[in-house]
Amino acid sequence: MSFSYKVAAFVVKMLGIKKMFLLPEDKILALAKKNNQKNQFSMPTDKDFFYELNEINGYKNLIIKNNEEKSDKAILFLYGGGNIGCPDKRDMKFAKKLARETKKDIWFSFYPLCIENSIKTTFEFLYMTYESMLKFYSAKNISLIGFSSGAVNAIGLLLYNNDLGNLPMPNLIVAVSPGAIPFTQREKDMMENLRDKDILIEPDYLYTAKNIVSKGEDIPKYMLYGPAGDFSNFPMTHFYFGTHEVIYAFAKSFADSFDKYKAPYKIHLGQGLCHCYPLMDFYPEGKEAQKEIFEILK
Questions:
Q1: Would residue 7 count as lying in a domain?
Q2: Which domain holds residue 287?
């Protein structure tokens, strides 16, 4: 690990950010609502890109374009936040950099959160978003990238398509740190073994998240536990996991499911690194991972 990463990890650990994931459900949601007030959507006013809104059922997709006219290629960007947190400046910075590096349109999705709605609403919206994208781009010219819960949703969107829809599959997925509700004993044991190494997330939240995303509804298993889904006809999927994140416990589970359906994939590991390590570029490991992801998505 680089010196700059070690310093950053030490600072994050000292700040005790992960303690919030030990809170009960009601307090976690209250904190999320408070933080979301600080990050409400506003239309960008900078002149670096051309911006366009796509609205579905009151929810927004911000289209970031390098030129006034749409490109013939696009990327659906799904930010992380446990399906309860709004995107922030860090996410917007990454999305703009992605647009600049790939020269593609970026559909930055402000998808429904599980504050009031269940994950079903999220998947329904993302399905309609992808359906809308297909009006402008061919499936082979669409890619998906997601971080954390956004990675779960990127994979879940295509599982939902296999379950209920019949849309053509996109070209590829980049899934950075996708988790799940723990299901197997192996996952639970591994999460506990990684508890003290993870600087950002406590395993406890992944159990609490079950109630948050289900809202007491009858939820298909794959919406809670992605590896249980149908991966038939899935496109090439690039997974990124840090070996010091509790969510690394799901890497084998996804690999086994992809193997079962003979779906193509590659798992990239950041040795000794944290949750969503490619999102930041101020340390060498994150910068290198971003460069690799941009090349994949080009």
A1: yes
A2: 3-39+51-297
